Amino acid sequence: MFSFLLSATSMKQRRGAQPARRPSVFAAENRFERWDAHTLAAHPETEFEQCHFVGCDFSGASLGHFRFTDCLFERCNLASAKLSGAGLQNVAFTDCKLSGVQFAACRDFLFEVHFEGCQLHYASFFGKKLRATKFVRCSLTDADFTSADLTEAVFQDCTLSNAVFRNTLLTGADFTTASQFSIDPEGNTLTKARFTLPGLLGLVSKYGVIVE
């Protein structure tokens, strides 16, 4: 059994999961520009708190022994970065390249992330708790949300071509401005999830229904 809501508006405040906090205020000495993997590895600390990374290139880097708390990555390249064991506690990514990143491998403890204007092709969120997480203007082609908890998550102006939703908890999730998604209502929990009428096509695609 499943149920969902049709809505013409996408960003109404909802009860239940609390809106995620987004880090936005940083001390000048905590702003790091154009760092690369070598610069990060040479840094004496492995824990970063309230830091702002701008224009950094950590593509393919091993970040598993680092913990980031209340941090913002802006215009950074983290494509295929290795996050096994990394701590992401209230971390925001803005205009970042995150293709192939296995967020599923991050520590579960206090895991909290935010995304705006990011490339998340082939990213994996397998089994992660992403309650009330906001994805804003993101490309999520082939992203994997299998067994994830996306209760009251928001996909604002996101493309979800070939994204995988399997055994995913989508209670109250907002897809009203998302596009190109295909979600099997029989294999996911969609209670009170929000869709526009055109978006309902993404729920019946497996049945080969033709809507004219």
Automatic annotation (TrEMBL):
InterPro entries: 5peptide_repeat, PA_immunity-related. It holds the Pfam family Pentapeptide_4. Gene3D superfamilies: E3 ubiquitin-protein ligase SopA (2.160.20.80). Transmembrane segments: none annotated. PANTHER family: ANTIBIOTIC RESISTANCE PROTEIN MCBG, PENTAPEPTIDE REPEAT-CONTAINING PROTEIN. This is Pentapeptide repeat-containing protein. It comes from Hymenobacter metallicola.
